[in-house]
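Why show two proteins at once? Because comparison is the fastest way to build intuition. When a single record is shown, students tend to memorize it. When two are placed side by side, the eye starts asking what differs. So, the first record is below.
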Amino acid sequence: MIKRILLGGFLLLWCMAAVTAHAGYPRPVSMSILSRWPESEVIGETRAHVLGGGETLMEVARRAGVGYQGIVQANPGVDPWRPGTGREIVIPRTAIVPKESGLGITINLPELRLYHIWKDNGRYRVRVYPIGIGRDGWNTPEGLFEVRNMIEEPTWQVPLAIRQENLELPEYVGPGHDNPLGLFWIGLSVGRIGLHGTNKPFGVGRRVSHGCIRLYNEDIRDLFARVSIETPVRVIYQPVKIAPKGERLFIEVHPDDLGRLDLTLDALQQWPDLTAWQGYISTHAIEKALREARGLPVPIGIQEERRR
């Protein structure tokens, strides 16, 4: 069933669907094609879900294949642990592909998402996965790297610094479902950092790791089959993304946890994405998006002829 919602003069489509886990999104081929690549664009679809008895946002996020922070940001004012039976919430499965994305893997730290872009029969396609990243003091490094090694059923050699935090940890943890690396490891060309599965899926969509990038186990299995040694990996920091879709201009805002950007209206209005837009822009919509930082693409502009 399609539910139409009129928001700020713009018509958005929301899909009412059962919440089931999938490996990455968008799944339909037609929705995964990048028509503007290498420019940014809006992909995916936002879904609505009616909560059943006893459901928490963390459980819904896990089954829907989205991250914890993403679902919390998308539903401001909703108690993550007692959201309320019968309440309709948003499943954030739409996004703006970040600038600087290239073929291979792009990880945008503020939004806790990984983008895999590949070429398929002359067309560029994308698949998005939620991730967990390094916590304070163990920040996931930024930069341009590549895949150096790939291991199925890895053994975890526990770093000394981590064993010093938890003296009960052994020096090695063998393969299996109790291994914090999960069943797949994709090592990067930077220190001991890699992409891997997890035995604690509720850490996906949160800043809880020691620098590595965690994925749901079905996601890392899917990604493992799609990449190879020397696949480029970009780790970037873009809390704000702007892109057009049809006659409308969208903005997607995430918390600037590192305080790197001037996210005032005056500063944002100088961005090339806005100064180059040939049409109407709502400063009220921009201010609201910056204030709420819901992590969803929201409309802020429309081409002039569409207003007539």
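Second record. Ask yourself what differs from the first in the token line.
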Amino acid sequence: MSSLRNLTRLSAVLTISLALTSTLASADVIVVNQFGLAFDPPDVTIATGDTVRWIYNGGNHDVVEGLDGTVDGDEAFFGLLDAQNTVFEVTFDAAFVAANPRPGGLYDYFCSPHFNFGMVGSVTVVDEPGTSFCDCSGSNSPCSNPGGAGEGCANAGGSGAMISGTGSTSASADDITFNGSGMLSGQAALLFVGTIQVNGGLGLSFGDGLRCAGGQVTRLGVRIPNGSGAATWGPGLNSASNWGAGDTRHFQIWYRDTVGGPCGNQFNVSNGYSVSFN
């Protein structure tokens, strides 16, 4: 019964917080953990410009682009993952993709010592369906808490949350997915969509962040971010908001920041993200 009451309270808080104010290129870092003889998650889809960061957790491993299980020297990327090299990362920017083209943007990879044990993964690089706006990297933060480039304002973790997208801009296909990162693990996060960019796309103070999306607002679901502060919404979101070909919509993530938030308002928001559907 108490769980039901808590969920009811959460829904009310989210509704009230959004109602109060309803009146820049970015890049994400996607973390892949090595656990035992596996990469977690093994397969990721990213946008051009994103970075994939592999994190070591024990043993002796490497990260080798390819499918054949051997290190040939012509791989698009190669890095050790061991006690002396605990992090390996690759930025899949336009220059890297142009220099190392792969069909469908698919970069398979493996751990060469453990290839026969099925220690493999993949990175698929796609163009983002939308554009970021209204970050908090300048002097516009509510309480001197700027985030990094492309991020919302800094939270208790010291950085800002970021929203990005994958999939297509086809309203009928309804396959767009929104990825949130930099939020607080275990604290509720809500994706919402608006019909206008607030304050001409510059945003206005809202909790510990900037409200970027406004006008007619629709809530698109609550998620609980994982241990890395990440969460995903979609596909199949259009039934809630009913956007169509020719419509432009503006998306943002509201999330709890109840302990140690820089401004003390107990919630924060990501940057904004605009999509023009066809």
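One difference worth noting in the second protein: The longest strand covers residues 248-256.
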